[in-house]
Specification:
Layout: H1 12-23, H2 29-42, H3 47-54, H4 58-71, H5 90-100, H6 113-120, H7 125-134, H8 153-165, E1 171-186, E2 189-193, E3 199-203, E4 208-220, E5 226-231, H9 236-249, E6 254-259, H10 269-274, E7 278-282, H11 293-305, H12 313-329
Length: 353
Amino acid sequence: MIPEAREVHLSRKDRKVLEACCRSPVTLQRDLKRARIVLLAADGRSTRSIAKEVGVQPRIVSLWRHRYADHGLEGLQDKPRPGKQPIYTKTTDKRILKLLDKPPPQGFARWTGPLLAEALGDVDVQYVWRFLRSHKIDLVARKSWCESNDPNFTAKAADVVGLYVAPPAKAIVLCVDEKPSIQALERAQGYLKLPNGRALTGQSHDYKRHGTTTLFAALEVATGKIIATHSKRRRRVEFLDFMNSVTAAFPNRKLHVILDNLNTHKKNEDWLKAHPNVQFHFTPTSASWLNQVEVWFSILQGQSLSGTSFTSLKQLQEHIDAYVNAYNDRAEPFVWTKKKVRQRFKGRRITQL
């Protein structure tokens, strides 16, 4: 049933506004219809005749007649609508985060989207995934860390970094370490052509062992050049033999040697007494990453050893030696860029029991 028609009285100002709205080519259709309804109602037209001329239902005409009569031009604007209430709220988000702090169900190594949705009971798995993505939470990726509990961490780190940033005058700073048990593996090598036409280098899964070698290396911090020798083992005697070759490469020079805390690197006071121009500096416990030669070992692995095949231990050793010679021809020193070296403590991370 159509409500009783309301009389519409237009002021001269409102009429000009509505007529301009009807003439404008950019007026939205909904606003155009509302303006025409009010103008025709002000001319005394009936609700049904206005509805027929404008092309709307009579109840629509009645609505806008009443809205203008009660509120004027402001009544022709849409009222704010509350919209659909969200199913999930910030409380749901807090429940997901709280659940992630708990151990996963028995028998599972980690939480997954379906496991979280199942544990929550009333949350769809798609929302769980959206929430995790929005908060950049990766349930699969894993990070490992090593925390140094060395009580002298600050002093040792400052000593090592100081040698990098401000080396002593007329002295050589060397980073020394070993890369043990490098395997001489023989694998079938070749190219694999995929169905889409793309060709990839590859190697067979099976292999044949031809022994291992231990690489002793010394990196000269000022130039980036490498001194390297091979050994079957990494005992104290092999380490001191390598240090003898290092001191012979720098006769009559003061040497500052950076080492990690391997047992064979320590308790060598007799050798140091026989070589007063050599001073050992040790990285903090569980902080061997401070030793720059570790960076070079990573470069060696990536550029020379990964994806290669060797038919003998001698071939492996010659291969590494050739790489060392080629590396030294273009060697550049590493630049220390880290501004602060901090010690991590167990109380500063989340421990999951």
